[in-house]
Specification:
By secondary structure, this protein is α+β, with helices and mostly antiparallel strands. The chain contains three helices and six strands; from the N terminus they run αβββααβββ. Strand 2 and strand 3 form a beta hairpin.
């Protein structure tokens, strides 16, 4: 079963697919891996005798789902195939602390005001 893909992973996956297409590969996204029944790869890229399984994952995805390591071992054991891992940067959400107090910075060269929070522990 496929997990819900992180938005950043999806964006990087599409970019990786475009890059492989520019290099002359035929690309299939979220495609079945023919020699592994029931397994789907983020991306399969093929060009003549070069066949690649590409996974785009964040570190947290890799920590929570060991299937990429299992897939990598299976792909590397298959003659004519290689495995590529694209490490995707994490989307870090930083919440403003409750005790932060807004500071208003006035206009500078007719630019709109910007609200800045001063953090006081």
């Amino acid at each position: 079963m496929q997990r819900e893909r992180d938005a950043t992973e999806h964006t990087v996956l599409l970019s990786t697919a475009s890059e492989h297409r520019r290099k002359g590969y035929e690309v299939a996204i979220e495609a079945p891996v023919g020699f592994l029944p029931g397994v789907r790869a983020d991306l399969i890229a093929t060009k003549q005798d070069d066949k690649r399984v590409v996974e785009a994952k964040t570190r947290s995805t890799l920590q929570n789902d060991p299937s990429a390591e299992t897939l990598a071992c299976a792909v590397e054991a298959e003659p004519g195939w290689s495995f590529d891992l694209v490490l995707v940067p994490e989307q870090v959400r930083v919440d403003t602390p409750e005790y932060a107090q807004p500071i208003w910075i006035g206009q500078y060269r007719n630019e709109p005001s910007t609200q800045v929070h001063r953090v006081q522990p």
